[in-house]
Amino acid sequence: MKIVVGHLYPDYLNIYADRGNIAVLARRAAWRGYDVELRPVLIGEPVRPGEYDLLYVGGGQDREQALVAQDLVAKAEGVLEAVAEGAALLAVCGGYQLLGRSYRDFHGTDLPGIGLFPLETDAGETRMIGDVLLECELEPGERRTLAGFENHAGRTRLDVGAHPLGRVLAGFGNDGESGWEGCRVGRAVGTYLHGPLLPRNPWFADWLLAQAFAHRLGDPPELEPLPDDLETEAHAVSARRAQLRGGRR
Ligand code: GLN
Predict the structure, then answer these.
(1) Within the chain, which residues score under 50 in pLDDT?
(2) Is the CB of 13 under 6 A from ligand 1?
(3) Is 93 among the catalytic positions?
């Protein structure tokens, strides 16, 4: 059985090895006997709802965001419909910002977003850089930690009632003040966490895979556990670094 992953703008939005997240999804699916068909979605190409089980968009500097922003608006209907009908989605940093309503960049230029996430972002004077540690509860009663790396000028404000991805234990997060990081809308998750994120957070990679399978199968399948010793060690190292160095609120 296979899932189809749509990778938006792999040629423009890919910093801090964000495309490594795709490699992890494909490998963890393959280790369970599933196939991942990867379809790049470039500028000028449509997002056809129903075609993808998971959509992915990476991060990028203001310049790259400006190069794709108008094209992403032209894809808005497809992305919004795909998520509304149950596709999973992971958006990182610059991609996360453009899936909100707008991003005002470092020079004060307003880039339109598509409004999937109920939030807006303005670039500040300084960059928020460093290791990050979050506490998440994507499934009721299941508290887990996410460890990653952030580097952004953007300060993201969630709307009242919006669901953050997690609570900041160490690091800056959405704005360095609210104590929250990321945003979640159903099976769609936006985050500032680079790294790439998924190699050092195998539970989250499996949660995303299960959401993508749920889109194809109806319910998220139980994925057999994998021997994640290396991944668990990478998480521990990243978490320790965040606790030692992460930005202090
Ligand atoms: N250009 C955006 C910012 O600075 C996003 C950066 C990124 O994707 N790392 O906030």
Answers:
(1) 249
(2) no
(3) yes
